[in-house]
Amino acid sequence: MALLITSECINCDMCLPECPNTAIFEGKKVYEIDANRCTECVGFYPEPTCIAVCPINCIIADPNHVEDQAELLEKFKRLNIVSGRF
């Protein structure tokens, strides 16, 4: 499933450069994650890097965008391999 940044975000900028799919962006109040671009780092890293660097643990699984590992891998391929990034 895609990830979600909660309203507890303090806009510390730690997650933004960590996202290999550029799924994280500045929202009106807190950073947000584009569910269409989030692969939970599948295809890049064993674990989501944004979660690893978040100092307040405000990044959670998005219950509105449930995807299994195979779906996340397909999204990774669509975003990166097809676009010529790899």
UniProtKB/TrEMBL annotation:
Gene3D superfamilies: 3.30.70.20. Residues 1-29, 31-64 form the 4Fe-4S ferredoxin-type domain. Keywords: 4Fe-4S, Iron, Iron-sulfur, Metal-binding. GO terms for cellular component: cytoplasm. It comes from the Bacteria. GO terms for molecular function: 4 iron, 4 sulfur cluster binding; metal ion binding. Signal peptide: none annotated. PANTHER family: PHOTOSYSTEM I IRON-SULFUR CENTER (PTHR24960:SF79), PHOTOSYSTEM I IRON-SULFUR CENTER-RELATED (PTHR24960). This is YfhL family 4Fe-4S dicluster ferredoxin. It comes from Acinetobacter guerrae.
